[in-house]
Amino acid sequence: MLKNDLFLRALKRQPCSRTPIWVMRQAGRYLPEYRAVREKTDFLTLCKTPELAAEVTIQPVDLMGVDAAIIFSDILVINEAMGMNVEIIETKGIKLSPVIRSQADIDKLIVPDIDEKLGYVMDALRLTKKELDNRVPLIGFSGAAWTLFTYAVEGGGSKNYAFAKKMMYREPRMAHQLLGKITETISAYLLKQVEAGADAIQIFDSWASALSEDDYREFALPYIRENVQAVKAKYPDIPVIVFSKDCNTMLSDIADTGCDAMGLGWGIDIAKARKELNDRVALQGNMDPTVLYGTPEKIRSEAAKILKQFGQHTATSGHVFNLGHGILPDVDPANLKLLVEFVKEESARYH
Amino acid sequence: MLKNDLFLRALKRQPCSRTPIWVMRQAGRYLPEYRAVREKTDFLTLCKTPELAAEVTIQPVDLMGVDAAIIFSDILVINEAMGMNVEIIETKGIKLSPVIRSQADIDKLIVPDIDEKLGYVMDALRLTKKELDNRVPLIGFSGAAWTLFTYAVEGGGSKNYAFAKKMMYREPRMAHQLLGKITETISAYLLKQVEAGADAIQIFDSWASALSEDDYREFALPYIRENVQAVKAKYPDIPVIVFSKDCNTMLSDIADTGCDAMGLGWGIDIAKARKELNDRVALQGNMDPTVLYGTPEKIRSEAAKILKQFGQHTATSGHVFNLGHGILPDVDPANLKLLVEFVKEESARYH
To answer: Catalytic: A151?
Structure first.
């Protein structure tokens, strides 16, 4: 039994005594303790070494007091497991090879056996789960198909997604085939993560806002829905969070995937999102990560504003406090700690 | 008298026989004729040489048949005129120095005499106006204060706007002072552009979507409103377009600046924007620039879709077809030509 299940209760829109908080990239470079581990090894090796992955996953629980842990990994492990070579140079860039741009390229990618190719993630989950000792829930995650598709087709990060869009606009059937293959891998991967101990799942569609609404409905949402439904069909009690960053005009469409909660970037007032969705999903977010560069007063006033914007809780509302994107590497950890403590204290009045 | 005033009529929401079209960065690197001029000189010298600026401004009118010309220039000429050194290496990057981060830095910036520091833009406008010979209207423009502020504080492009946000969150009065100084320059600059022959004005807030709604209302919109009002007070007949890219949850707030038209990125279905705004402003946009990488059929079907989404025109509606961002440098000019011709033909049915 979890000692602190506030995060899961909020995702399920069950009554909570206060608003739970975790932050994206909470196991990361802003923490000196993370940097000390990271110094010993490269980024992907850290992901692939369960003892180290578990250690950095738990650091923010110990040091910052967050209400959930998220397994330390990277969204690109899927691309790698499918047959691409992935290089991640933290702070520098990402390179995948070969790039996937033709039918032959797609045919060469495999839908991997998850235990064989990604067993290290399950090992890390099991170990973390054990070491967490039920203090807080553990989040498993995956990139969304569209985002992973852009990395495969572009061979790295991209400004305009020229190659990905060229495939979508010139060879849409090929694009859908690649998206389908990625989606199949994601679903299997998510199910395995739940079996290994993940208490909730987050799907990150980091590059969601690069698509028009209709393109998002054609090339992204059906695949997210497939992943969500795969998890919910087998594990109806495991909450799924969809983070389609900055898709603020499509909130209802995203809720229609059947997810339990939706992550928000800071571009939308959370009150507007709650009003539009009318508490049919929980909301996660949505403070601008750069607010953590501010003074303590600014951090507190901004957090108080977001709690107030979300407003009073009812029997069917759910809010998980988070940043609208990952915590930045040069933030002072004391500022995150201050935020966590403030949210825990200030939020009680709304419950 | 303008021979083709469709663009101005659409901005003023007056009846039109068809939907006018121009595209952002239409005078740019995708055109071999532009590259031929550009080879002879560097980017800023091109901006500062009225004969050359006029030549490339008119190229897309001659070659592509667009319904408006936009003066060839750069938003950073304001930063330069205020006392910063600006280097623009096309395709590479932008560097401004010194960076503006302290009160002393701000104090050193001047609110320039426009004729003295930016007279070359007025010369280019006058020359272009003459050479256009009233074929189509000529657009003058400026960056919005928030966007120019980020360049001043960051010293170039930025991913997270860390220094700009630090100033906003730690020294808000200083940030407002710098924004005010930039705004004063912008207003004077826009008025001079109208005097030199600009038939319409566009304000580009390229980095608008980096701010939360409340921050946008505090640090960006009041300054845009000031610029819009400065133009409208002196030249009520000159239409002003505000392009706060991807601020799709704040459409009404942007309309409240008093602008005549609003530019849209491709992240929102234009039908939603029209419905929310109820034709109180004209809309400009909003095709994903990467659609021009598509097949002719894809380009036509996407353009047809946007015209259809905007829908039937009434006595008070206005639509200017455009891309949701600048045309990309590696687009085949034939594809833009095809788009322009298609929009001209297909749009008539909606008027």
So the answer is: yes
Indicate the burial class of A93 (C-beta count within 10 angstroms; 0-12, 13-18, 19 or more): exposed
A213/B269 Cα distance (integer angstroms)? 6
Q: Is the CB of residue A44 less than 8 Å from the CB of residue A74? A: yes
Share of chain B above pLDDT 90, in %: 98
List pLDDT tens digits, range A229-241. Answer: 999 999 999 999 9
To the nearest whole Å, the CA of B158 is away from the closest chain A CA by 13
The alpha carbon of B13 is separated from its chain's Cα centroid by a whole number of angstroms, namely 19
Q: Does residue B163 sit in helix, strand or coil?
A: helix
- Helix, strand, coil shares of chain A, percent, nearest 5, are 50, 15, 35
The reply to whether residue B290 touches residue A162, judged by beta carbons under 8 angstroms, is yes
Candidate from B169, B249, B290 with C-beta closest to A160: B290
**How would DSSP label each residue in A235-250?**
-TTS-EEEEETT-TT-
For A112-131, give one letter per residue: b (16+ CB within 10 A) or e.
bebeebbeebbbbbbbbbee
**Burial category of B173 from C-beta neighbours within 10 Å (exposed 0-12, middle 13-18, buried 19 and up):** exposed
Tens-digit pLDDT profile for residues A58-95 = 999 999 999 999 999 999 999 999 999 999 887 678 99
Domains detected in chain A: 6-350 (3.20.20.210)
How far apart, in whole angstroms, are the C-alpha atoms of residue A228 and residue B297? 34
Residue A215 appears among annotated catalytic residues: no
- How many A×B Cβ pairs under 8 Å? 96
Tokens representing A250 are 């499509």
Q: What does the alpha-carbon distance between residue A142 and residue B16 come to, in Å, rounded to a whole number? A: 50
pLDDT band at B153 (very low <50, low <70, confident <90, very high): very high
Q: In this structure, what DSSP letter does residue B328 have?
A: P
